């Protein structure tokens, strides 16, 4: 059974500007132990997908499709069942750990809180478990009595990871969990997540705008643009040889270290992401696309298989030919 299965997820916000489609028909599937990187520019809908996976979207948001976690649909759960699933079935690590932690409570108490709520153990027993979890993420026991402001940014992110692991979930979603950290601390946190996924067979979704980080951490990479998936496939191949022009532009935005030519002539992508309330016709990327064709403005392109394990939503991608039927075995004669 997949740890997470998202089927035709559509999310619409309503505001003073009318209807705003934030997510437009996304489908994803993760088995236990799978790692998926979700990339894209700000406003593409990747954090909305993360919030929807635990039903954390604001009231009034319209959601359709299915989000199956351990065989149950998150979108149709009662609130009581939903509270039981959060932390125990799936947990999330947000980008701003300082804003996610309570500034007036000590670290051990905050890590222990989901254990007390979901497992019904005493506070003392939960705090003892919290100290063990902190050790697993590389924090010394004496930090259990610290307040969030007494920790560095990397230490606070480790606390959030310890909280995410507190009730042994099937799925962890890391939403820009390393964006605000320096390079050395970022590498430590990423190595920690990789190790925990391998040791505990947890499914992991990492959300970032940094394709290089996702390619090194995750086995598969999905790229979003204007609320839709435009490419999904093996991480290193998508990062190095993307099929969709937008994914190619994201990959090209990272210079090759030691290459003077790239340092003097950096690559970029002209224009801005589209307004979700007024999306272009046809392919949403066509106004910015460097290889646009006349038909792109009028043709809505869905993901097509460039290979059995690789999809891209572009007219220039030749869809994979259907598999040929196996040759029938010759009948044996008596």
UniProtKB/TrEMBL annotation:
<dbReference type="GO" id="GO:0005886">
    <property type="term" value="C:plasma membrane"/>
</dbReference>
<dbReference type="Pfam" id="PF00005">
    <property type="entry name" value="ABC_tran"/>
</dbReference>
<dbReference type="InterPro" id="IPR017871">
    <property type="entry name" value="ABC_transporter-like_CS"/>
</dbReference>
<dbReference type="GO" id="GO:0005524">
    <property type="term" value="F:ATP binding"/>
</dbReference>
<dbReference type="InterPro" id="IPR003439">
    <property type="entry name" value="ABC_transporter-like_ATP-bd"/>
</dbReference>
<keyword id="KW-1003">Cell membrane</keyword>
<keyword id="KW-0067">ATP-binding</keyword>
<dbReference type="GO" id="GO:0015833">
    <property type="term" value="P:peptide transport"/>
</dbReference>
<keyword id="KW-0813">Transport</keyword>
<protein>
    <submittedName>
        <fullName>ABC transporter ATP-binding protein</fullName>
    </submittedName>
</protein>
<dbReference type="InterPro" id="IPR027417">
    <property type="entry name" value="P-loop_NTPase"/>
</dbReference>
<dbReference type="Pfam" id="PF08352">
    <property type="entry name" value="oligo_HPY"/>
</dbReference>
<dbReference type="InterPro" id="IPR003593">
    <property type="entry name" value="AAA+_ATPase"/>
</dbReference>
<comment type="similarity">
    <text>Belongs to the ABC transporter superfamily.</text>
</comment>
<dbReference type="InterPro" id="IPR050388">
    <property type="entry name" value="ABC_Ni/Peptide_Import"/>
</dbReference>
<dbReference type="GO" id="GO:0016887">
    <property type="term" value="F:ATP hydrolysis activity"/>
</dbReference>
<dbReference type="InterPro" id="IPR013563">
    <property type="entry name" value="Oligopep_ABC_C"/>
</dbReference>
<feature type="domain" description="ABC transporter">
    <location>
        <begin position="4"/>
        <end position="251"/>
    </location>
</feature>
<keyword id="KW-0547">Nucleotide-binding</keyword>
<keyword id="KW-0472">Membrane</keyword>
